[in-house]
Specification:
The complex is a heterodimer of chains A (about 450) and B (about 450).
Chain A (H helix, E strand, L loop, with lengths): L9 H4 L2 H4 L8 E5 L5 E6 L5 E8 L13 H9 L9 H10 L3 E6 L4 E8 L3 H13 L5 H19 L2 H14 L12 H5 L3 H11 L5 E7 L3 H12 L9 H4 L12 E6 L7 E7 L7 H15 L4 H6 L5 E8 L7 E8 L4 H14 L8 H19 L2 H14 L2 H5 L1 H6 L3 H11 L6 E6 L1 H7 L4 H6 L1
Parallel strand pairs in A: 2-6, 7-11
Antiparallel strand pairs in A: 1-2, 3-5, 3-6, 4-5, 8-10, 8-11, 9-10
Helix pairs in contact in A: 3-6, 3-9, 5-10, 12-15, 12-19
Chain B lengths: L8 H5 L10 E7 L2 E7 L4 E9 L12 H11 L7 H11 L2 E6 L3 E9 L3 H13 L5 H20 L1 H13 L13 H6 L2 H11 L5 E7 L3 H9 L25 E4 L5 E7 L9 H22 L7 E5 L7 E8 L2 H18 L3 H18 L3 H14 L3 H4 L1 H7 L2 H10 L5 E6 L17 H8 L1
Parallel strand pairs in B: 2-6, 7-11
Antiparallel strand pairs in B: 1-2, 3-5, 3-6, 4-5, 8-10, 8-11, 9-10
Helix pairs in contact in B: 2-8, 10-11, 10-12, 10-16, 12-15
Classes of the chains: A alpha+beta (about 450), B alpha+beta (about 450).
Chain lengths: ~450, ~450
Amino acid sequence: MKPIKLLTLGLVFAVAPLTAQQKLPDNFFLEKLDNGLEVLTIEDNTVPLATVEITVRNGGYTESPEYDGLSHLYEHMFFKANKDLPSQEAFLERTKELGIVWNGTTSGERVNYFLTLSNLKLQEGMEFMNSAIRYPLFDEQEMKNENPVVDGEFQRAESNPVFFLFQDSDRRMWGDLYSRKNVIGDHDVILTATTEKMKIVQGKYYHPNNSILVVAGDVDHNDVLAKAKAVFGDWKPSDFDPFEKYPIPEFEPLKASDYFITENENAKTPIALIRYHGPDTRNDIPATYAADVFSFILSQRSSKLQQNLIETGLAMNVNVGYGTNKYVGPIHIFMVPNPEKIPEAFEALEAEVAQWDSDDYFTDEQLETAKNMLAIQDAYSKEKTSQFIHTVTYWWSSASIDYYTNYVENLNKVTRDDIKNYVQKYIKNKPNVTGLLVSPAMKEAMELNSLQAYLKK
Amino acid sequence: MKKLFKINIAILACLAWVNPTFGQTQEFDVKGLKVIYKNVPKEIISARLFIQGGTANYSMEQSGIEDFALQLAVSGGTKNMSKLEFSTAAEQMSTTVAAGTNYDYGQINMRCVKQNWDASWNLFVDAIMNPAFEEQQYGLLKDQLIATAKQNDADPDQSLVQAAMANVFEGKNYEKNPNGTVESLSSLSLEDLKSYYNSTVGKERSFLVVVGDIDVDDLKKKVAASLAKLPKGTMPSEEERNMLGEVTNKINDRDIATNYIAGVLSAPTLASEDGTAMMIAMSILSERYFLELRSKRSLSYAPYSYYDNGKVTNPYNWIYISTTDPKQSIQVMVDEISKLKKDGFEEKELVNKKQKYLTQFYMGQETLSSQSQSLGSNELKGGWKMSENFTERVNAVTLEDINRVIDKYTDVISWTYLGKADMVSEEDFLQPNKVPDDVKLNSKN
């Protein structure tokens, strides 16, 4: 067991002092290669498998409008030709030979690539990953082929009406910096993407000192480290910190509450979405913990929110959550109101929010239950190592490894005052973006022209 | 409940990773209730009561009744505990007691940490044995399920599945929507639910699966004192299989950004001699679809095929795509099947696929919930041992086996389309070329 090493990136430095002296779990082993690549091994001998993941600090937040969606397109190009596998066919063939289950994801602040295979083939798996992450060819024809595939993924999202509710909300939440939170991207940008743009993304972000390699499963950490050094040790680091050289612009706080209607003919039932700008891991870590605990208080059946919205029949579903981010995590209230009682549901919700910072809004028992729920959920998530690895890298990207390894302990320290501060600082009487998804028929029946006017009425 | 309240964080920290997952499975009977227990030395326990029948248990008009009744049982309180007392007790331990249903069975399941096993078991069996079925909770849940049904209908993938099942299995059990429709859910009374529950949840058609590290004698005692007291009940009636030999195509018009297409084909049961080979054949076909439809032609983000043996009584093969070019996509999908019918698979494809199945098998063994689900669903398909001898079954499949089944079960495709109706017509829904027997012999030997 080794004390966690401080990360060198300035952005992460801000969070380090809080937890710098903390230790990793017994089965975590973290090292850093000379080129800056962090190597984390998570030993778990449950099944004879190894999962290899590389995560890069890239994603929506790095995208100016002309790059909107290109982190995601880049992720797709990872699974194509590289210097050792000259075509996607060859790439796919190699995954089959090794019995690999593979995928990649792109989100606001992370792009990750992962594969699971027999632990006996760890060496081959790491070499396969190395070829793909370091030496993509960005073959022009393969790019042309992939653009419509990525666009097809976009169109699938657009085929569900709830997608438009979130997209409309995003435009209002993030204003001029919308592209920085719009992971799926822009159709035109995707369809006209060039290999030159891919190389620009690569040159900015795809460096060992902006990445982490995680190997989890029935493996030995010394063996993993030796293999990592041999395979990735000559990956040349950048001589810059991408987040200093290409800083992420700060999101402007919402100036006033904003209301909107999303009209979609495929909507079958009204759905409401209310969002606020929440805390982030650069500026207000205590609030991020308070946010998670408070969300779990509100999810309990006994909570006032559930009792006054669901048990009264005013809403079919109400869910409050916070997405931990390095750059303004959004707080959301997602509500499926009773279609016959939409104004009443909003009114009741507003009355709840107004009480969220009062001393008697939740009981001590509910506070403790929320902490226990979070702790046990965390334990459940560790059961599936091939997925748990993604949780760890999420925290690495949006906070730090030790943010996560001390997560349960820090949740346990959350007090009523912490929650009150969180509510007062980010939610109560703060500007928000409120939207309602309806079909044209619902809109007409409700005589809905302005959501704000409708709710006041 | 207070004594359970503080969870030992130190124990949680090492819950999942210190012990191998493979253990001993045994089957025994407790006063007429079958129990399958697998000992796995972990700190989590998963229990599931499977109830056989699913859509065979109710009429078309009652679609969704099983889901509604089971959901009300686990979420509406019991005769001993109010809804709030029950949910609070479960939340304090982070124990989940949940219900689900599909085409062939329903289930009530529970997951807890070992530390809370006794108290969690009590909640689990109280929900099953003593559901309150109270009027107010019935009304609230009904509204919620109707809202969910509407949301599902707005989701094109869920909508496509339902449309395809209604198209292909018209007049059969699988035409019924297990989650119910707005109309069917609206018509179900509380008395209907009670009556359904009491007549269905019995020892004849149910069995219990438990995976975890517990004392077997203690488990037997617990079952004897609770679930073994369920009424004997009856077995569900059996329906003659629909072998899907006739083409039925259906176009559903919806103005959405892309178009969703499903083809349904005949298939063997998993326990039959063709079952495991069918699974492998359709999985290799899926890889060919990825290559031909996505990589080479950019026709789709998501083409795939698989053998749906999760439909226990009437399994089928399923081919699927979302695309803005339906005509060309269908052509390629069908051509690939025709090619296989004529030329068969390559040996290398089979060898590689076996390797990948081994990876997937182990990934499925990572959690105790997935293990208990696998044991239970295999019990319905032909015996829980099929869950444990999966790799042996896969390894025994030969090239001849997969060539035989891909030809045997792919003569007829019934297509269901959800999207812009003016982009397709009936003649676009192609069928594979049948191969004469003498040609088959020449090309596959």
